[in-house]
Every structure is written in structure tokens, then in C-alpha cells.
Write a structure and sequence with these properties.
256 residues, 5 helices, alpha+beta, 12 strands, binds N-((E,2S,3R)-1,3-dihydroxyoctadec-4-EN-2-yl)stearamide, Alpha-D-Glucose-1,6-Bisphosphate, Chain A, domain 4
Length: 256
């Protein structure tokens, strides 16, 4: 038992999630799998509007309003060389490195560790003048999913964040306006093995990323101001985050 605990702490072995015993689990399971399906749907068909493009990165939105508040769903696709899907989703999920890439944050607290792969997080975001400051309370879950459409392909990895409630952070306290969000990052690695049969290195890896997000900002914000924030913040996030993971993994052993 002690030996297993040691291995677990060193993260040599990934144990099955302990989260299924938690009351939130049915929702975590359902939303994560729904998000996976949603992310895998293409952006063809005319409902998605391209609003930002930079190299391999393409960002699409659908303009939608709920009670006069813009909640435009966003879908972004990107291809990043030299990293795996597991590495991408690990750094997206891990609260230890969030301030390294998330530029909208002022404070962050892990309210509950449901399992190694499932957390409840409270974030206070930077205020955008003249709007009220926002906070976000969500569960966050990361997992590997076997690729059922191609058994020879690498597994898919998904990290999913979805708004929740927690007794330590009721939404009606204080001056913050609470946003509600559903976000996922879905990644798949492909390997182009070296033609000389040599070892696979980072030069042989490509990671295909789909990032989907729906944020309801809560309170009231003028639509044009909100869309300007989206247009600035989402490309900034995806470029900065993917570069962070590339830099962080460079010269490190590959984590498949
Ligand atoms: O997915 C991302 N990050 C994850 C980990 O943090 C997590 C977070 C989701 C972000 C929720 C949005 C929180 C509100 C932010 C308000 C301030 C943003 C601007 C700060 C500028 C300095 O899933 C990556 C997230 C990428 C960034 C998304 C920006 C979404 C903007 C939402 C606007 C909310 C209203 C703000 C008022 C605007 C007034 C003009």
C-alpha cells in the first residue's frame, strides 16, 4: 500500500479517478462527454463566423443573446507542433501554473479537490472599466478518452470547466458579478514516426486542438463592449497558452 501511495504521489501511475463517489459526478460525466461531442462537430454549415485567424489558429463565433446579453459561443481550432494532447490539457487544468498563462486573473482558489483530475475553483478576474468586476466558480475535470473512431490513433484528452455552486462562495455575497461558463479544451496528438526507424522526438509530434467556450457575463454589459473584449481576449489567450505549453515542454521527456 505504501509503495502504491509513493508511486501515486510521484504521478508515475495514473490511478482511475476517485471522483465517481462525489455528488457532482453525474453532471461532470454528462457535461464532459457532451462537450467532447460538441467539440468534434465541424465549423462548416454557415452557423459559425470566422472572427480571428493567426497562422494555424482559427476562431469562430456565433452571435447569440440571452435577455439582451451577448453570450456568443466560441469555437477555436489550432495545430501546435512539439507537444501532446495530454501535456496541453494537463497545463490547462493545473491550477499551479494558471497565472503563467491566464492574463484575465486577479485571484484564484481551489475550493475543493474532488480527485486528482477534478477540482472546484473560484476565480476573481480583472475588472474591465467601467463594468463591475466578475468572478467565476466552476468544476474542472481532465481525462483521457479512447479514440473510438480510429483505434490506431492516439487517445483524445479533454479538459472541461463548467459553472457550479459551493457553500464557501455563494454568488450573492460581495460586489462581484458571477459569470457562468462552459469551456472545453479537446486535444489529439498525431505522430509522424521518423522514416529511419529512430526514436520519436518532439519534432515528430503535432497536437490538434479544439477550444470551445460559452460565457454568460451576468449582470449587464453593452453588447459592443463585450464583443470587443471577446475579440481581444480569446486570441490572446490561445496564442499565449499554447506558446506557454510549448516552452514548458521543450527539452522535457514527452508525456503521452
Ligand atoms: O478558458 C480559459 N480560462 C480558464 C481558466 O481561467 C477558464 C476561464 C474562463 C473565463 C471566464 C471569463 C471570466 C470573465 C473575465 C472578465 C475579464 C476579462 C478581461 C480582462 C482584461 C484584462 O475556463 C481562457 C479564457 C479566455 C478569456 C476569455 C475572456 C472572456 C470574456 C468574458 C467577458 C465577461 C464580462 C467582462 C466585462 C466586459 C466589460 C466591457
Amino acid at each position: 500500500q505504501q509503495y502504491l501511495e509513493k508511486l501515486k504521489n510521484k504521478q508515475v501511475v495514473r490511478f482511475p479517478s476517485q471522483a465517481p463517489a462525489h455528488p457532482l459526478w453525474p453532471e461532470i460525466e454528462r457535461v464532459t462527454l457532451e462537450q467532447l461531442q460538441y467539440a468534434r462537430l465541424g465549423v462548416e454549415g454557415g452557423v459559425w463566423q470566422l472572427f480571428a485567424e493567426d497562422g494555424e489558429m482559427k476562431m469562430y463565433k456565433r452571435e447569440e443573446e440571452v435577455d439582451g446579453l451577448a453570450v456568443d459561443p466560441l469555437k477555436a481550432v489550432h495545430t501546435v507542433k512539439g507537444v501532446t494532447g495530454r501535456e496541453m490539457t494537463h497545463y490547462f487544468f493545473s491550477p499551479d501554473v494558471r497565472f503563467e498563462w491566464e492574463t484575465t486573473l486577479e485571484q484564484m482558489k481551489v475550493l475543493e479537490t474532488i480527485a486528482d483530475d477534478t477540482l472546484v475553483i473560484l476565480q476573481i478576474h480583472k475588472r474591465v472599466w467601467p463594468a463591475s468586476q466578475r468572478d467565476a466558480l466552476f468544476w474542472s475535470h481532465v481525462r483521457r478518452v479512447p479514440n473510438d473512431t480510429d483505434r490506431d490513433a492516439q487517445d483524445i484528452w479533454i479538459a472541461c470547466n463548467h459553472s457550479t455552486e459551493h457553500h464557501e462562495a455563494p454568488s450573492n455575497e460581495g460586489k462581484m458579478v458571477r459569470v457562468s461558463l462552459t469551456v472545453c479544451l479537446v486535444c489529439q496528438t498525431s505522430i509522424e514516426p521518423p522514416s529511419d526507424g529512430g526514436p520519436v522526438t518532439r519534432d515528430h509530434l503535432t497536437c490538434k486542438i479544439t477550444y470551445c467556450s460559452v460565457v454568460n457575463p451576468g449582470g449587464w454589459v453593452p453588447t459592443s463592449a463585450l464583443r470587443a473584449v471577446y475579440k481581444r481576449e480569446y486570441p490572446k489567450f490561445l496564442k499565449r497558452f499554447t506558446q506557454y505549453v510549448k516552452d514548458r515542454c521543450d527539452k522535457q521527456p514527452i508525456l503521452f
